[in-house]
Design a protein that fits this description.
401 residues, mainly beta, 5-stranded mixed sheet, 1 helix, 7% helix
Length: 401
């Protein structure tokens, strides 16, 4: 008996081949024999799994990923696929940043991830500031208890528009401070951005009493307070600065100057000329002063006259006035519109007294055209006369027709 061998590589499926021997006897006779053999080629069990992770629908495997406004929702999608040739069980999806993926769809109901089958999971969160990355991971078990796994990262960049505003207003009556008196300010700080702010702080080098630590300020929120500068002896411009910190550590600032005008601590007469939008005779919030209006003051004891023109806020002030009787009136030719308040006030001042409530409201106020009221009336009369002539001619022509 002689032994022979041969070798090859197993092919898939049923396989058969036949061995044959031939030989020659002593009288030159030929002899032979055959014998078949078989095998069935079965695939190697190769468990494998894949995970593909997306952020808000974007497959962001590398930075920076989609831009998402800080505070907006973020949705992660995890698609798990059996890329092997055997069933998988015990499928588990996790995320390294603590978000919790939840199964959504794909399982045919048997709890087994079959070759080629894909399951979908989702997780959600709130966008944080700056570059963000998290990694999804899937683990599963093959038929021989072998463990397989895969990972996939995703990214996004959290963007924001932090902003802050500060408004500082001198609240003293008439907008002026008597010599040696106290200036009182109102400060309003508002978060005008789209993200919360922290460490909001106001500083005022010339008025330390206005320094304030506000702290946190939500989107759209405001903080309002008042502060005083005592013993003011000269006019100056007071400036308040505010700084806040956005969620990404970015600093936002704003500043607002407020002029402080000091007047001698003698008699004062003044107030405001303003546009009385609702015609109720008092200046309501949002009703603005009228600049450039002329106000006349007459000392009724001496017949001495003086004039003041309102500033950009509609304010006017007569200062250093002796005690006595006065008449203060709005020069109507310097403005337009119908008065909703008296047009004349007659305050009487004691020595060093102030009368700062002589305000003039105007409905439907328009900028001064520079044309005197008498001229306007004359023009109106001419136009009306011309209209009457035209009407007469037209009607006479109609009669003739």
């Amino acid at each position: 008996a002689w032994t022979y061998t041969a070798s090859g590589i197993a092919a898939a499926g049923q396989y058969a081949n036949v061995g044959k021997v031939t030989a020659t006897g002593p009288n030159e006779e030929s002899v032979s024999a055959t014998d078949p053999s078989h095998y069935i080629g079965v695939p190697i069990q190769a468990p494998s799994v894949d995970i593909e992770k997306a952020t808000n629908g974007v497959d962001a495997d590398t930075p920076t990923g989609p831009a998402i406004t800080v505070g907006d929702p973020v949705t992660w999608t995890y698609v798990v696929t059996n890329t092997g040739n055997v069933d998988l069980t015990g499928v588990t999806v996790t995320d390294d940043q603590g978000v919790v993926p939840v199964y959504q769809s794909g399982d045919d109901g048997d709890g087994v991830l079959e070759p080629g089958e894909a399951w979908t999971y989702t997780a959600s969160g709130i966008a944080a500031a700056g570059q963000y990355a998290n990694v999804g991971k899937v683990t599963a078990t093959g038929p021989n208890e072998e463990s397989v796994s895969a990972t996939d990262p995703s990214h996004y960049i959290g963007v924001s528009n932090p902003a802050i505003d500060i408004v500082k207003t001198l609240t003293n009556e008439g907008g002026f401070v008597p010599l040696g008196g106290t200036a009182t300010f109102e400060i309003v700080v508002t978060n005008t951005g789209d993200v919360p702010l922290t460490d909001v702080t106001v500083t005022d080098p010339l008025t330390p009493a206005c320094d304030r630590t506000i702290g946190d300020l939500a989107v759209g929120a405001s903080s309002t307070y008042t502060c005083d500068a005592p013993n003011v002896t000269a006019s100056y411009t007071n400036v308040a600065d505010v700084v806040g910190t956005g969620p990404g550590g970015e600093k936002v600032t704003d500043t607002d100057p407020e002029p402080v005008t000091v007047v001698a601590a003698s008699g004062l007469i003044g107030d405001t000329v303003w546009h009385d939008v609702n015609k109720n005779g008092k200046q309501d919030p949002g009703e603005k002063g009228i600049a450039g209006a002329k106000v006349k003051l007459t000392n009724l004891d001496t017949n001495e006259e003086s004039f003041q023109t309102t500033n950009s806020d509609g304010k006017y002030l007569f200062s250093a006035l002796p005690a006595g009787r006065y008449r203060v009136e709005l020069v109507k030719s310097s403005v337009s519109g119908e008065l909703t308040t008296p047009g004349v006030f007659t305050p009487t001042l004691a020595e060093g007294e102030a009368s700062l409530t002589n305000d003039f409201g105007l409905a439907d106020a328009l900028p001064n055209t520079g044309i005197d009221t008498d001229v306007l009336l004359l023009m109106a009369a001419v136009l009306l006369a011309g209209g009457a002539v035209t009407l007469t001619v037209t009607r006479r022509r109609a009669d003739l027709a």
